[in-house]
Amino acid sequence: MIPLKSEEELRELKDSGRILAKVMRELANSVKPGVTTLELDGLAEKLVRAEEALPAFKGYRGFPATLCTSINEEIVHGIPSDRRLAEGDIIGIDLGVNYRGYFSDAAITLAIGRVAPEINKLIDVARLALAEGIKEAREGNHLFDISARIQRCVEDNGFSVVRQFVGHGIGRSLHEDPEVPNFGRPHEGALLKKGMVLAIEPMVNMGGWESEILGNGWTAVTADRLPSAHFEHTVAITEKGPEILTA
User: Fold this and answer.
1) What are the domain boundaries of the chain?
2) What is the rounded CA–CA span in Å between residue 212 and residue 232?
């Protein structure tokens, strides 16, 4: 069953999303050559706790950090470490916040200094795919209308969408029903209703869609080791249309 949020619950989720967005802005300003992903993780935890919130990922199913930091060919679930970001890298930063028992989730991908034009295009298309998918998050549409629009945007631009990992419902738990794939056929899947809250998150590969999990049991990488980009927002379906809670 897909839970429907009350107006009171939506207000709490907006507060959670506001905190997450604030932390993300500060993190983005700290991403530069020479910084380690562990330093970014420490900053993220400090900023989240300063808002009297909790890092949603830390300890979740044993994940050891506040952030997922995924570099270059890493798709999602990269574990922060002493690795220093270098000119020409790209990094996906994924953060979840638990504020008073209400969860929000968002991700961005950033270029470190100058990157090749095709990598800039990859990032731009992943960001665009998220925006296009959100447009379909409307009452009366079907779940896979979101999926199909994301897939079409990505593939029309010559890239591929990851199949192994998907978006999800979110609210009083970090992961709720339904799963939100980034591929599918329009007019299929659950009917979208007011009060649903979805974490929509296209993961876009420069090469093929296939992925592998590294030996740490967490980090997903592209099978062909070509770069990947990831964007995510927490979105509420309202009578006025989609509302981004993590903008």
Assistant:
1) 7-244
2) 21
Rounded Cα–Cα distance for residues 229 and 123 (Å): 6
User: CA angle, corner 135, sides to 48 and 153, nearest 5?
Assistant: 100
Q: How far apart are CA 9 and CA 47, in angstroms?
A: 23
Task: Write out pLDDT tens, residues 175-198.
Answer: 999 999 999 999 999 999 999 999
Tally Cβ neighbours within 10 Å of residue 130.
25
Q: Are 245 and 14 in contact (CB under 8 A)?
A: yes
Retrieve residue 138's tokens. 């409307």
Question: Among residues 3, 9, 10, which one has the least CA distance to residue 242?
Answer: 10
pLDDT digits (tens, 9 = 90+) for 64-81: 999 999 999 999 999 999
**pLDDT > 70: what percent of the chain?**
100
* Contacts of 177 by beta carbon, 8 Å cutoff, 6+ apart: 1, 2, 3, 168, 169
Nearest in space to 213 (alpha carbons), one of 31, 78, 88: 78
* Listed residue (237, 14, 16) closest to 135, CA to CA: 237
Spatial separation of the C-alpha atoms in residues 32 and 101, rounded to whole Å: 33
Contact in structure between 12 and 99 (CB atoms under 8 Å): yes
Query: DSSP string covering 203-241, please?
Result: EEESS-S-EEE-TTSS-EEETT---EEE-BEEEEEETTE
Record: fold of 7-244: Creatine Amidinohydrolase (3.90.230)
> What are the structure tokens assigned to 87, written together?
């000119």
Residues 7, 9, 11, 14, CA torsion sign: negative
